[in-house]
Design a protein that fits this description.
The complex is a heterodimer of chains A (about 250) and B (about 375).
Chain A (H helix, E strand, L loop, with lengths): L5 E12 L2 E12 L3 E5 L6 H8 L7 E6 L2 E2 L4 H7 E4 L11 H11 L4 H14 L15 H13 L5 E5 L7 H16 L3 E6 L2 H7 L2 E6 L2 E6 L1 H7 L5 H9 L8
Parallel strand pairs in A: 3-8, 3-9, 6-7, 7-8
Antiparallel strand pairs in A: 1-2, 1-4, 4-5, 9-10
Helix pairs in contact in A: 3-4, 3-5
Chain B lengths: L2 H17 L1 H22 L9 E7 L6 H12 L3 E6 L2 H9 L5 E5 L3 H10 L13 E4 L4 H20 L25 H15 L1 H14 L2 H6 L5 H29 L8 H28 L3 H19 L8 H7 L3 H14 L7 H29 L2
Helix pairs in contact in B: 1-2, 1-10, 2-7, 2-10, 3-6, 7-10, 7-11, 7-12, 7-14, 8-11, 8-12, 10-11, 11-12, 11-14, 11-15, 12-13, 12-14, 14-15
Classes of the chains: A alpha/beta (about 250), B mainly alpha (about 375).
């Protein structure tokens, strides 16, 4: 069997904030075209990991390679390949939904034809076409999150970092976003998804890494982990690993 | 640097001006309302041609011809109502009681001094130097701004006529420009300072928007794209220069509608636009520094005022009537040079190539570059998170 090319390679990554170790010796490889889920309770180190992967934070030690580029040495090259949907919705309230997406398309220096095609396509897929010209500040929470996602993916990135993409969404919006993420997988995009919704990880991910207190405590496909721990779901896997329920700390 | 990114970010900033009520008020509506209010109150449209009572004590013992000529010219300015006094004490008494706004003392050797100049116009060693003394009602803000300029210009015109004003002469004088002051209103004197005054508020909007973007995670989000810091700062500079020019145009149109009649030509206005564009970079720099120091949008407003207040009080029309020390302090703020350049361009009708204006532009440019660079460095190091 041929080895798959790695999209993300993390080796012994440590991140400290003063005395607090947010990420403690994380090593992980995500293959190209893989939909990988990083699971764990709030404060486990998921967002810190994503922030390092997209160049917002520098690791204290260890190496991080994204799309073949060391994010410390060649951050601008890595940033051309990635799209980041942050956990907290970050949209300009005075711009319309469409203008927010167009802004980020322009920041990725897309051609006008490509921009129009991608923006229209995303608005359609995420069910936002009818609200495209409304200022984002007047959107509902679910619509805001969908715009948040579209801004990350408008430039058709090779690698997408989706930090809790469905948190706070209603079931209908969540389903729509799941379908959209599955479509990314079909397009052979690499997706690193963080979530504390276990059913979301089971539904979408090829593999999951369970992280707690900054350490990777388990890694594998959801079915394999459930089988390994003789558990009905990933929530039970986490319970067996840590003695705590994942959502207790949510 | 990709212009596409700079343009997209600048467009985002400019749309905020149109769509966010706070920014729209501060940068557009406030200048419009304030200009209209001042213009209607003190400009020609408000029938606001003011008159000031000036007491003249003529101590000239040398023939009186020159002094009477000066007094006659002062009376012809219309804006000044001349009241003759036989002695200084009576004039000072009326000044202290507010019956007149100024006292002009023509010295006893005034006529001799003028004659000495015309006898030997190019030989200063033969001049008899003298000083015309002016006392002002310090409680009259407008009088302290308008009267010295009018008196100096009338004195200059009276002593030297219409010939090019010499760089020095036996009679102490101020501004070298010859201006038909009788047509000017108080508003005309204030207007150049207005332009700088409104531009200063860019500091607050820049710092508020940057802190807002930081608080909402928008800056972090932009940093995950290939956008460089220089592209981001360039977008701030471009959008705020556009806003500054827009402000100038709006204030000028409104001011003109309410009777503002500047002396400058098209070149003067183009130069004024350039000066204010450069100054807007200084405001962006101060905005970056304020955003670096501020932890929240509310704090950004407060910290901005630390920069706004001195720039406003020491360097715009608000500086009229300040103490001598404060006026000296004004020379350390860039808005002083902006107002000075605009006053020379629009009030005195001086050409942009005149040394005073070129020096003003040079100082504003150097100041703006230093503040902008400082802002970029501080914001880049401490302000992004």
């Amino acid at each position: 069997m041929a080895l798959k090319e790695a999209a993300i390679v993390i080796e012994n990554m440590i991140k400290k904030f003063g005395d607090v170790t947010a990420v403690d010796g994380l090593s992980l490889t995500v293959d190209r075209g893989e939909l990988f889920g990083l699971l764990g309770p709030n404060g486990a180190g998921k967002t810190t990991t994503i922030n390092i992967l997209c160049g917002l934070l520098e690791p204290t030690s260890g190496s991080v390679v994204v799309g073949g580029y060391d994010v410390r040495k060649e951050p601008s090259k890595a940033k051309k390949l990635i799209g980041v949907s942050p956990q907290e919705t970050a949209v300009y309230p005075h711009l319309t939904g469409k203008e927010n997406i167009e802004l980020f398309a322009n920041l990725h220096a897309m051609s006008s034809e490509e921009l129009k095609k991608n923006v229209d396509g995303l608005l359609q897929k995420l069910g936002l076409r009818d609200y495209a010209k409304r200022q984002a500040g007047k959107y509902s929470g679910g619509m805001m999150r969908r715009i948040n996602l579209a801004m990350a993916l408008v430039h058709d990135p090779e690698i997408a970092f989706l930090d809790e993409p469905t948190v706070g969404m209603d079931p209908q919006s969540r389903r729509a976003v799941w379908d959209f993420i599955r479509e990314l997988k079909k397009q052979n995009k690499t997706v690193l998804l963080t979530t504390h919704y276990m059913e979301e990880a089971e539904e979408l991910c090829d593999r999951v890494g369970i992280i707690d207190n900054g350490k990777l405590i388990s890694l594998g496909p959801p079915q394999q982990l459930k089988k390994q721990f003789n558990a009905r779901n990933l929530e039970e896997v986490f319970l067996q690993l840590t003695g705590r329920r994942i959502r207790e700390e949510v | 640097m990709k212009l596409q990114r700079v343009a997209a970010l600048a467009k985002k900033n400019l749309l905020a001006l149109v769509r966010e009520p706070g920014a729209l008020f501060m940068l557009v509506l406030f200048p419009v309302i304030a200009t209209m209010a001042f213009g209607l109150s003190f400009g020609a449209a408000g029938n606001g041609q003011p008159t000031y009572q000036i007491g003249v004590v003529n101590e000239d013992l040398s023939g009186m011809m020159w002094s009477q000529y000066l007094i006659g010219n002062l009376s012809e300015t219309v804006i000044l109502k001349v009241q003759n006094y036989s002695d200084d004490d009576a004039a000072q008494s009326d000044l202290s009681q507010g019956r007149i706004q100024a006292v002009l003392i023509i010295p006893d050797d005034f006529g001799l001094s003028c004659d000495s100049f015309w006898d030997s116009p190019i030989d200063p060693s033969r001049w008899i130097n003298t000083t015309v003394t002016l006392f002002l009602d310090s409680g009259s803000l407008f009088a302290t701004q308008a009267i010295p300029t009018i008196v100096q210009q009338t004195l200059s015109a009276s002593v030297y006529g219409i010939q090019p004003t010499p760089t020095s002469g036996p009679v102490s004088m101020g501004s070298p420009s010859l201006v038909d002051v009788s047509k000017l209103t108080t508003f005309d004197y204030f207007a150049p300072g207005f332009f700088a005054f409104f531009a200063i508020f860019l500091i607050m909007t820049v710092s508020q928007s940057l802190v807002f973007e930081r608080e909402k995670g928008l800056l972090r989000r932009i940093r995950t794209t290939p956008t460089s810091s220089s592209e981001f700062i360039a977008s701030q500079a471009v959008s705020n220069m556009v806003i500054a020019m827009l402000q100038v145009a709006i204030v000028f149109i409104i001011a003109t509608l309410v009777g503002y009649r500047p002396l400058g030509d098209a070149t003067s206005f183009a130069s004024a636009f350039i000066v204010l564009s450069i100054f807007s970079l200084c405001c962006v720099g101060f905005g970056l520094i304020a955003a670096t120091l501020a932890k929240s949008s509310g704090a950004a407003t407060g910290i901005s005022f630390i920069f706004i207040m001195p720039l406003m009080f020491l360097g715009t029309f608000v500086s009229v009537g300040l103490s001598a020390i404060a006026k000296e302090a004004g020379k350390f703020v860039p808005s002083y040079y902006v107002t000075d350049a605009l006053t020379s361009l629009l009030l005195r009708g001086a050409p942009v190539t005149s040394p005073t204006i070129l020096l003003d532009i040079l100082v504003v440019t150097i100041y703006s570059m230093i503040v902008l660079m400082l802002g970029i460095v501080l914001y880049g190091k401490y302000g992004k998170t």
